[in-house]
Amino acid sequence: MRRRDFCATGLATLGASVFPYRRVFGADAASSVPILGIDGRQLTLSASDIQDLRAGLRGELITATSPNYDSARRLWFPTFDRHPALIVRCAGAGDVRRAVSFATAHKLLTAVRGGGHSISGQSSVDNGLVIDVSPMRMVDVDPVARRARVASGTLLGQLDMEAAEFGLATTAGTVADTGVAGLTLGGGIGRLARKFGLTCDNVLGFELVTADGNWRRANATENPDLFWALRGGGGNFGVVTSFEYQLHELAPVIYGGTITFPFEGARALLRGYAQIMATAPDELDVDVDLQSARKGGREIALTVCYCGPLADAERVVAPLRKLGKPTEDKLGPASYLTLQGSANMPGLSDAGAYIKGGLVPSITPALIDAVVDYLEHTTLDTFDLGFESLGGAIKRVAPTATAYWNRGATFNLLALGYWKLPGDGAERNTEWVKGAWKVIEPFSQGHYVNIMTSDATENRAHSAYGDNVTRLTAIKKRYDPDNLFRMNANIKPV
Ligand SMILES: Cc1cc2nc3c(=O)[nH]c(=O)nc-3n(C[C@H](O)[C@H](O)[C@H](O)COP(=O)(O)OP(=O)(O)OC[C@H]3O[C@@H](n4cnc5c(N)ncnc54)[C@H](O)[C@@H]3O)c2cc1C
Question: Which residues' Cβ are closer than 6 Å to ligand 1?
């Protein structure tokens, strides 16, 4: 019998009615599950615990024996090869509530996953529970109010596309399949941040489930303490189920692209770049990457976005073109979506990567010399040392106005080592990044929470929160006294 004929027989209806039965007793029938407790102790969840949890979910409960276990546990970076004991793939806020209550009741070691792009691999956990909101994808734009309600599993590209259809946008990161959740909660740096502020500055409200299993709204009038903490405090305070963003008008055609220069002019180029950005309009965003070139050797690539009036664009970017003799100039009019898509990678990363980053108040001659000296002695085939421009609207928000503290920084420096998998580049690249970081760290003042490696120390995490750490600790103590949400740049509730 063909599938179409089967559906017509009415047996399909019978199939639907037996589905819940199959969910409980079927191919992935429950048996007891060994799992780690929040304190690291080995626990065992009974078969009936598992059955009860599964029966109460609209989404899926995945265990190590589920046929889709390997695809469900995969993070964007394949190097974080975590093996959780349980994955709850939430279909909605109700599932999130159920999963959080289960985690709290059983005191389970718990990770929360959105887009899966974590640079520290903390959105999954070996032998623990993963609360995965990635099936929850929805963008609902109100073009009149210029707002978007966005479910927490949504990816940046989905938000960008839906908003662009209405001639609107808000600040988002530069790779489309990054999750809105992790990016927004840590801050959110992107091409429009100098103009409109960080992604978290554009959040009007959150909906979330806190460790006690309660669903809450956090905005300027409801739970304002949580509203403050969620804008830059990372995933410390609960599982966010939806965000409401402020959108802004954006012309259908803006200006940008990449322009490439020979590596040999690095010192002069960086000096000129620092000068240009010191007086640049908020509409201009320029990132500089000193990097290995695809064809071999090394190069300097500038990634440019100018979102001001198109008629002014050539004049505004003219000084960038004079930073050296370009080897390739791909600057020109483009839609915001085209510019946003330029860094996309097809599917999940197939490379290993190790990244360290830090925020600097300015690019000084000593910093330029330190960076270029280090790169001149680099023997790696693949590397990237990047300067992301900040300032503008980010800087005009007081450091205490939201949990995101490091408002005064004008650049975010990133050292990235990456290698093909399978391959043995991990050690060489990690050492290279650590070496780069030793050189750069004396110039940095604070870190960006979303660029925190798994080996980051508590001090490093605290340098992301600065003096806000005291208030964050009090809020953490109130909403998550047992530190259920600890797989992040953690704020301890003591
Ligand atoms: C290729 C790539 C490009 C990037 N580009 C940018 C960029 O342009 N700008 C920028 O600012 N950052 C960028 N980042 C860093 C990015 O912001 C972080 O990796 C961020 O954590 C990714 O969010 P996610 O939801 O995809 O991650 P996940 O790995 O799913 O989650 C990361 C962390 O966020 C928290 N979290 C996730 N979902 C929830 C939720 N629903 N509720 C509560 N907490 C949650 C958890 O603590 C989790 O450990 C980039 C990262 C990568 C890998």
Answer: 76, 112-119, 122-123, 133, 152, 173-175, 178-179, 181-183, 185-190, 234-235, 239-240, 450, 487-488
Q: Whose CA is nearest to atom 23 of ligand 1?
A: 182
State whether residue 180 is helix, strand or coil: helix
Q: Which residue has the tokens 């489930």?
A: 209
Nearest atom in ligand 1 to the alpha carbon of residue 237 is 43
What pLDDT, on a 0 to 100 scale, did the predictor assign at position 11? Answer: 31
User: In terms of residues, how long is the chain?
Assistant: 494
The reply to whether 254-335+347-462 shares the fold of 139-250+465-479 is: no
* CB neighbour list of residue 399: distance below 8 Å, 6 or more residues apart: 405, 406, 407, 408, 466, 467, 468
pLDDT above 70 coverage of the chain, percent: 94
User: Mind listing the pLDDT tens digit for each residue in 350-374?
Assistant: 888 899 999 999 999 999 999 999 9
Expressed in angstroms and rounded, the spacing between residue 263 Cα and the centre of ligand 1 is: 31
Nearest CA to ligand 1 atom 51: 117
How far is the centre of ligand 1, averaged over its atoms, from the C-alpha of 200 (Å)? 13
CATH code for the part of the protein at 254-335+347-462: 3.40.462.20
Specify the CATH architecture of the domain 18-132: 2-Layer Sandwich (3.30)
> Predicted confidence band at 423 (pLDDT cuts at 50, 70, 90)?
confident
82, 118, 119, best to mutate for ligand 1 pocket (most atoms within 8 Å of CB): 118
* CA 115 / ligand 1 centre spacing (Å): 7
pLDDT per residue as tens digits for the range 201-219: 999 999 999 999 999 999 9
> What are the residues whose beta carbons fall under 8 Å from the beta carbon of 168, sequence distance 6 or more?
141, 143, 146, 148, 247, 248, 249, 250
Match domain 139-250+465-479 to its CATH number in 3.30.530.20, 3.40.50.720, 2.60.120.10, 3.30.465.10: 3.30.465.10
Of 73, 77, 110, 112, the one to substitute when testing ligand 1's pocket (max ligand atoms within 8 A of C-beta) is: 112
pTM beyond 0.90: yes
288 and 302 Cβ atoms separated by less than 8 Å: yes
Question: Which residue, by CA, sits nearest to atom 8 of ligand 1?
Answer: 173
Are 69 and 124 spatial neighbours (Cβ–Cβ below 8 Å)? no
Residue 28 in this model has a pLDDT that exceeds 70: no
